[in-house]
Design a protein that fits this description.
The complex is a heterodimer of chains A (about 375) and B (about 375). Chain A is mainly α. Chain A contains 14 helices and no strands. Chain B is α/β, with parallel strands linked by helices and about 375 residues long. Classes of the chains: A mainly alpha (about 375), B alpha/beta (about 375). At the A-B interface, helix 3, helix 10 and helix 12 of A face strand 2 and helix 3 of B.
Chain lengths: ~375, ~375
């Protein structure tokens, strides 16, 4: 937080350039495997953004990633590296499925809001725990949040296979299913569920909160320089916990939406790694909630395109992981170029070319 | 959309259709069909997914069959998208979503959206509440695990055999019990140690479990996890013997591999494919064992004794003839309670067996 707002042109063109280079490299690699790179590029585009089906495919896959990315991005703005969003997600899903069994729960939109809120609360508590361990006990939050994710998964499996198990779920231990009235439907006419809209709204809200509200600003100050924040009287611990709770709530909500929109009950299929993909999304978005939206859509696109690539060219699943990996490394590496003074670089290049080093040819 | 202006693509489609129609009376070839297969793990995992991939490769070699495959598809919205994509983007008419967790709710959801496509799911229990264009198939592989047990019973010197399992669910318990009963039919003093790793693919825990059982004196191993590779290799490294599962792992440890329980999915695949190509109703509930060719045993390793082969082959012949019941009374669980009274026997097709929640006498462990 040195105060210099990132140059929007660079924020846009650097990652785009990195992805372009990643695609080029990927094309080169597949060409070694005897596959025509042009065909691969066309299929990647068609699979992710080629037609209405692909778009729905991409958006659907991006829905949980936006929320799990917020679980990394929000604490990061308060200066914490939290990587345990997976734990918040699975507990959020479990809390949603458990809350759905409450007696007297209306099976309507209100009921859906209640079960989703239960999921968000569970996630918020879990990540706050990592935040509290750091603030009060000095435990490194990166490690503790990761370990807490394993604890959460253990807890989830124990409860789903034990006290909360639906006795009729024989070979796939699951909780009792949610009442049909509680399920989250798809956006009218589209094959994308409301979780996508909720994810976009959450990202927008988080972005506006950080930018426009005093508490959001205070969180950024704490993230930039906690000592200075305390000197000016900001309640650093409370703000850190708030950022953790909001991030955890987002991941918990993602779990609740997965249960209410996709699985209809909580079972081990929920542990699908969305929390970990969210880490990549958040880092690529430089922890900017607004940038999380396009980055999550890009990741959804990678998944959708990978699916088509496998089916059409018989490439192994690992090939898309390779592309994602290259893109991720290049985007992070491109950060090093962010502060480069391009004008100076170009003028140096032109000077070399014209072999006229003496003349001060710099334009004003 | 455009009823009046035929575009070029439509004309090509029409031409293609005409060509196909003209060709059909001339040849006996069945109509061309696109088949989609979806795997939860890697196609070459020496296990569950490989068993399906082997059958898929056989489908691919049949004339007129176009195969589209996708691996490492999780049991989430992703599999719904993959199935939809196979139908909408690739024109698949018959789909094999092969992981157990794909069925509810994913196959049920997508099958409703595409009433003209057929969904043949592996492992599920289809009921008449499910869409008619979906169905489930599975094999009675506990028969082969019983035969594994017979071989293990002959080969074990320590009289302690080991079973490394993913989760205590009915399909897995049935295999543990069959394996144990097979071994105890040779020598009733044999006991089976069981370790549950907690999930389908836990290579580190599987290796730890193998080592810890080897330390306890177990000398023949088998398993029910998605990829038996690690267990087979670890057991062989410890100088122990193994009976395989899902597919043949003989290549990984030729000197330790006694025999194995393998799927022979091409039987089920062909049944669904034939129905789809001839326009017959989609089979909704398909099951079979050794007799029907749904499962098979790996060829015996060179170290297997003649006596072991003879007894196993004898039981196998009875199973193929349909005159052998694995789960018959008197049968006790490992706490001494009677499970099946004397004189009563369950046929393999009995749905009661698909709800198994016990471990039989001789198994050390609890559900």
């Amino acid at each position: 937080m040195t105060g210099n707002e990132p140059d929007p042109m660079r924020s846009f063109f650097l990652p785009i350039g990195a992805i372009a280079v990643a695609l080029l490299l990927f094309g080169l690699i597949v060409s070694f495997a005897g596959v025509n790179p042009v065909e691969v590029w066309v299929l990647l585009f068609m699979g992710a953004f080629g037609d209405a089906f692909s778009w729905q495919n991409t958006l659907q896959r991006s829905a949980p990633l936006m929320l799990t990315a917020l679980c990394v991005a929000l604490p990061a703005r308060a200066g914490l590296i939290v990587i345990g969003g997976e734990g918040a997600l699975v507990l959020g899903g479990l809390a949603c499925a458990a809350a759905a069994q409450l007696p007297l729960l209306p099976t309507s939109l209100i009921g859906t809001v209640v079960v989703c809120a239960a999921g968000a609360a569970a996630g918020a508590l879990w990540i706050s725990l990592a935040g509290a361990l750091r603030q009060y006990q000095g435990v490194n939050e990166t490690i503790s949040s990761l370990l807490l994710a394993y604890v959460a998964i253990g807890l989830f499996n124990h409860l789903v296979e034990g006290p909360l198990r639906d006795p009729s779920s024989l070979n796939k231990p699951s909780t009792l299913p949610l009442d049909d009235g509680l399920l989250i439907s798809t956006l009218g006419g589209f094959d994308v569920h409301w979780g996508f809209v909720i994810g976009v709204i959450a990202c927008l809200a988080a972005g506006l909160w950080l930018r426009l509200t005093p508490s959001g600003f205070a969180v950024r100050v704490v993230g930039g320089n906690p000592r200075a924040a305390q000197l000016v009287g900001l309640p650093a611990t409370r703000l850190v916990l708030l950022a953790c709770a909001l991030g955890g709530a987002a991941a918990g909500l993602a779990g609740a939406i997965e249960v209410a929109a996709v699985h209809t009950n909580a079972n081990a299929a929920l542990i699908a790694g969305y929390g970990y993909t969210g880490i990549l999304v958040a880092f690529m978005a430089r922890h900017n909630p607004l940038a999380v939206i396009p980055v999550a859509i890009l990741f959804g696109g990678f998944d959708a395109a990978g699916s088509l690539l496998q089916r059409r060219l018989g490439l192994p699943d690992a090939s898309v992981l390779l592309l994602q990996g290259i893109a991720f490394v290049l985007i992070l590496a491109s950060e090093a170029l962010r502060d480069t003074d391009w004008k100076a670089v170009f003028s140096q290049l032109t000077r070399l070319r014209h072999t006229a080093p003496r003349t001060q040819g710099d334009r004003p | 959309m455009n009823l009046t202006l035929p575009n070029r693509r439509d004309s090509i489609k029409t031409l293609a259709a005409l060509g196909a129609a003209a060709a059909s009376p001339l040849s006996f070839a069945q109509k061309a069909i696109t088949v989609g297969v979806i795997y939860v793990g890697a196609r070459d995992d020496f296990g569950y997914n490989q068993a399906h991939a082997e059958a898929a490769a056989m489908l691919k070699s049949m004339p007129g069959v176009k195969l589209v495959e996708e691996e490492n598809v999780p049991e989430t919205a992703a599999v719904q998208r993959s199935m939809s994509g196979m139908v909408a983007q690739d024109g698949a008419e018959l789909l094999f979503p092969t992981s157990f967790g794909y069925f509810s709710p994913h196959v049920q959801t997508v099958a409703k959206k595409f009433p003209n496509a057929r969904f043949a799911h592996c492992g599920g229990l289809w009921t008449d509440k499910d869409p008619k264009n979906s169905g489930s198939f599975f094999g009675y592989i506990d028969e082969c695990q019983y035969l594994n047990g017979v071989i293990a019973g002959h080969m074990s010197k320590s009289k302690k055999i080991g079973f490394i399992a993913a989760k205590p669910i009915p399909q897995v318990l049935r295999n543990i019990n069959a394996f144990t009963m097979g071994a105890r039919s040779v020598d009733p003093s044999i006991t089976t140690n069981v370790i549950f790793t907690g999930d389908w693919s836990m290579p580190v825990r599987e290796a730890e479990a193998t080592n810890s059982m080897a330390d306890q004196g177990v000398d023949v191993f088998t398993m029910h996890v998605d990829g038996p590779k690690v267990i087979v290799e670890t057991a062989a490294k410890r100088g122990k013997m193994v009976c395989g599962y899902h597919a043949s792992q003989a290549k990984l440890a030729p000197n330790a591999y006694l025999t194995g329980a393998e799927w022979n999915w091409i039987t089920a695949y062909t049944e669904f494919l034939t129905a789809a190509r001839t326009g017959k109703p989609h089979p909704n509930f398909v099951r079979g064992g050794l007799k029907e060719g749904f499962v098979k045993t790996s060829p015996y390793g060179s170290m297997v004794t003649e006596a072991a082969k003879k007894q196993a082959d004898g039981v196998k012949a009875q199973m193929v003839a349909g005159s052998f019941d694995i789960f018959k009374g008197p049968l006790k669980d490992n706490k001494g309670a009677t499970l099946i009274p004397a004189g009563k026997a369950f046929k393999q097709t009995d749905l009661e067996l698909e709800k198994m929640n016990y471990l039989v006498e001789g198994v050390k462990g609890s559900v």
